[in-house]
């Protein structure tokens, strides 16, 4: 398993280009199952989860092609999709595999998708995806670890009025995709408003879907009998951009972050400004982050978009360890998303956890040691902590970070960080 060795203490200076959003690219790839025509996607990040999704689609009989490997352009063509199976071997490595369920059942009337298991950050059930599909007429059984879904008599799913009990990002995306090919109108209430959902709507519309309500929590979808191929460029990764904003701020540096979408970073920028960080808009898609002399503590609560993203919580915790005062971090989305805290404590941070609240007292002098990454964003938080720690930090299990950050070692090296990947 590869590791990162990071020597902390260097302020970061220079420019970083943000890659495409993993969490937009994954549903966009799954959407290619909805049509027999090719779907060409640009700005796809070169990360492990994308490779896994490519393998999964190929297993489900799609032809997945790209000009070179790895590539930021994917072309996916699914001539036929009969009895599609998403096997446990692939699903267990990536929960987003569940995104194939909605398109597969909508297109072919049957789907067998392995149930994603638990996950380090929480139980993460898919009950809301299944209940919505049932409302649309699917018969669902969960047997032998698989979701067996079918539309009776080989017909189409039927439009339905669905009110999500809880806001779910991939749940909204799954049902949105399923509804594009259903008979009649589907109304989704309490839908997720994440920019990745809106990006999927833009792609589906290019494919011929009839959807209204972009950016709102009520989506209306008039099903159509068939969708066509399309070409689409996915949005920039707002979590990668936020991570680099914090990298500039925590190291006392100045970073220019290009190819990002500042409108998607509202809550993150507002929070950073509360800590004394200055974020300047240089161009419509370029930001510059200026670190203050002293970072100030500020409380944060994770929320669904447009609130502060749970996917930025670990990175913000790293920043809070360096801020003067006490920051209370409340995690409302996942029940177990503080695994990085114990590793930061081993580095010298003062953090106490009480259920869904973490109390971080700063500034703490961090020192390098060996730490374990537990999930994708926790790894990013540990990288940030290591960038300000005295001496060397060895981060183990970086396969987690490779799932969602393109070339993070090279990008950080290019702005002056002392970071190496150790292959083993
Ligand atoms: C998406 O996961 C993202 N993944 C996650 O990013 C992100 O952390 C999360 O949304 C929240 O923003 C992708 O987009 C591929 P949810 P998702 O369904 O859709 C509960 C990353 O690091 N829930 O919005 O799986 C659930 O347990 C990842 O890139 C149910 O109870 O998250 C959680 O508490 C990690 N039943 C809450 O809802 C359901 O059927 C929100 O989860 C579905 C969800």
Describe what this molecule looks like in 3D.
This protein is α/β, with parallel strands linked by helices and 424 residues long. It is 30% helix and 25% strand. It is built from 14 helices and 24 strands. It has helices at residues 22-31, 48-59, 88-91, 101-108, 127-135, 169-180, 195-206, 238-250, 266-274, 313-320, 339-346, 376-388, 399-402, 408-414; strands at residues 3-7, 13-17, 39-42, 63-65, 74-77, 84-86, 110-114, 139-143, 146-150, 161-163, 185-189, 210-212, 218-222, 230-233, 254-258, 278-283, 286-290, 300-301, 325-330, 350-354, 357-362, 370-372, 392-396, 418-422. The strands form 6 sheets. Strands 22-23-1-24 form a 4-stranded mixed beta sheet. Helix 1 (22-31) runs parallel beside helix 2, helix 5 (127-135) packs parallel to helix 6 and helix 8 runs parallel beside helix 12. The termini are close together. Residues 23, 26, 95-96, 122-129, 166, 168-171, 196, 310-311, 333-334, 376-377, 404 line the site of ligand EPZ.
Short description:
This protein has 424 residues and is of the alpha/beta class.
Task: Give me some keywords for this one.
424 residues; alpha/beta; 4-stranded mixed sheet; 14 helices; elongated; binds ligand EPZ
